[in-house]
Fold:
Amino acid sequence: MARQYPIEKVRDIGIVAHIDAGKTTVSERILFYTGVSHKIGEVHDGTTVMDWMEQERERGITITAAATTCFWTPTYAKDDKTAEHRINLIDTPGHIDFTVEVKRSLRVLDGAVVVFDSVSGVEPQTETNWHYADDYGVPRICFLNKLDRMGASFENSLASIRDRLNPHAIPIQLPIGAEADFVGLIDLLRMKAFHFEGEKGEIITEHEIPENMKEEAKMAHDALLEKIVETDDVLLNKFFEKKEITVAELKAALRKATLALKIIPVVTGSALKNKGVQFVLDAVVDYLPSPKDLPPTKGIDMETGAEILRYPKEDEPFASLAFKVAADPFVGALTFFRVYSGTLKKGTYVLNSTKGHQERIGRIIRLHANHREEIDEIFAGEIGGLVGLKDTSTGDTLCDPEKPLILEKIDFPEPVISARVEPKTKADQERMGMALHRLAEEDPTFRVSGDPDTGDTIISGMGELHLDVLVDRMRREFNVDAKMGRPQVAYKETIKGSAEAEGKYIKQSGGRGQYGHVRLKIESQERGAGFLFVNAIKGGSIPNEFIPAVEKGVNEAVTRGVVAGFPLVDLKVTLYDGSYHDVDSSEAAFKIAASMGFQEGVKNSKPILLEPIMKIQVIAPTEFLGDITGDISSKRGRIEAMNDRFNTKVIDSQVPLSEMFGYATTLRSITQGRASFTMEFDHYDEVPANVALAIIEGRKK
Ligand code: GDP
Structure:
C-alpha cells in the first residue's frame, strides 16, 4: 500500500501559547474546520456540513491527545482534491515547570503556530517557549488571537513580538476593525478582503478592500513585498527592474524564508468568534515545513559510535522516536511515536535500541478528532500510536532490528523536589497506588517512592507546580482525592573521602545464634557516577550464597545517608573480606552486618550533603539588570553570562534550588512584571557547611 498523502503534503506542527491565550479554542476550531472540509471533500453534498456540525455538538471534539491528525485543503484551492494535506497536531504544554515536556514536543514537531492574546501581546511564558523553539530551529507563524476583545490591539501586539521575540515578524494580513467591530481580514498577498459568515464562520466570502483601508493595505503590502524580495535574489532583481512578481512567486519565497527562520509570518483573528482560523491552516500548509524539508535525522551507530543519517523516505531503514506514553481510556497504554525514516508494518518486530529488546507491533493507530483509526503501516514523517508495547518509555528509539541506531536522546533531568501525598479516604488510598504508577509511566521526570520510616508515599518531580498538576490529574482522571504536603528540596548525600569498615552481627548465647561479618571498602566516585557495589571476595571467606544478602544490606543502607537521612549517591562499595559460621550464619545476619559496616564506613569517609543547583535564565529590560543580578547573588547564585537579545538582557546563572522558592513573585516585584525566567536542573553540588547545619537541624525536628 502506498502512502495516502505524499510526504510533501504532511505537516507535523504544534500550537504554542501562554496559558489562556486561546490554545484550546484554536485547536478546537482547527479540528472543527478540518473535519468539515474533509467531510465536504468526501461527500460533495451541501447538507453534510450541517449534519457534521450536529454530530460534533453531540460527541464533542477530543483535543487532549498527544497528537491528533486532521486534513486540510487550503481555502484558495478548495475544489482541488489533490491539494488536501494531512496535519498532525502535536500537543505542547505551556507551563514553565514543564520545560521537559515542551522540549520533548519541540523535538518531534517541525513547525509551530504561536498564539498570542492581542490584549496582552507577548507574555513571559511565550518568550520562554519562543527561545526553546529558537534553540531547536523550529519555523514559526504567529497568530494574534482575541482581536474581538476589548483593548485588543493588532499594532501593539505586533510591536511586542518584534521588540521582544523577533524583529523579522511581518503581517501577511490586516484586520478590518477591532474589538466588537472586528469583521474580517485583508489578505496582503492577494489584496482582497474576507469575511467569515455562517453559524461557525465556516462560510468565507471575498470582498474588495474597504475604501478607508486601501492606503493602509497598500503600505502593508509593500512592506511585506520588500521583506520577501530581500530574501530572494531572483525576486530582488525583478523588483528593481520593476517587473511583475506573482502571488505564487511571493508565496514560494516566503515559504523558503520562513523555513530558514528569516521571516516570521503573522496572521490574526478571533478563534472564539470564528474568524481567521481557516487562514491559520492555510498558512500552516503554505509556510510551515513538511518532514521532507528538514535535514536528515542524526543517529548513533550502537556498535561503532559513529554518526548515522536517516532520510525522511519510505525506503530508508525504519527509525522512530517514542515521544509520549499516554494512558488511553480505550486501549490502555498508547505509545505515540514519530517516524523519521522508513516504513513500519503491523505484525513485524522493531528494536527498542534504548532498552535493548525487541517489541512486536500489534496495532498501529492514528488519533482523529473523534475516532481512532487502525492502520496497517505508517511511513516516514508521520505520527502514530502503538498499542500494547511491553516496555517502551518516553524518549526511546524504536528502529529496524537489522539496522540498529539510537536517535539523539531526549535527556530527562532527575527530580529535584519531593512532597508527601496523603489519600483522603480508604478508597482513595486503594486507587492512589495505581494512579501514581500510571502517571509515573507517562512522565519520566515524575517518581513515586515510600518513606521507610513512616510508610508515607512521597512523590518527586521538577517543581512545585509540576507536583500540583499531577495531584490534580489524580483527582480528575483517576478519581483519587489526595492532599499534598509542603514540597521539599530533594537533597542527597555523598562522601568526599574513603574508608575501610567492618560490620559484625554476632549473637551466640544459647540456641541457634546469628553470625554475619563483613569487611568493606568505601570510596567516593565522581559526581553523577551513581552507586556501585563490587564483590571482591576470594577464597570463600564469605560463601557465595550470602553475597546477595550483603549487597541487599548495602543497597538498603544507601537509601538513608548518615548526615540527615537523604539518599547516598556517587560512591563505590567493595566487599573484600569477612567470615562466617557453619551453623549460625544466615542471610539476615549478613544483611544486618553489611548495613552496619556500611554506615560505619560512610561516617568515616567525610560525608556531605548535596543540593540541586538550577540553571536560571532571566530575560528582562536592561534597566533591571543590577537588581536582578544583586538578587541572584544574595541567593548564593553565580552569574554565568549576560547577553543582549534585541533590546533586552539575557542573564544566565546557577542558583541552588532551595533559594528559588517563590522566585516568580520576587522577580515580578523587582521588575514590575517585565521579566521572565526559566529554571532547569543542572547538577548536584555540595551544600556549604553553615547551610547544611540548618538543614540537618530541620530534619531532626
Ligand atoms: P488556553 O489556556 O491557551 O488553552 O486558552 P483557552 O482556549 O482555554 O482560552 C482561554 C479563554 O480565552 C477562554 O475563556 C476562551 O473562551 C477565551 N478565548 C479564546 N479565544 C478567544 C478569542 O478569540 N476571543 C475572546 N474574546 N476570547 C477568547
In short: Residues 617 and 678 are 5 Å apart (CA to CA). The chain has five domains: 7-293, 297-407, 417-481, 493-605, 610-700.
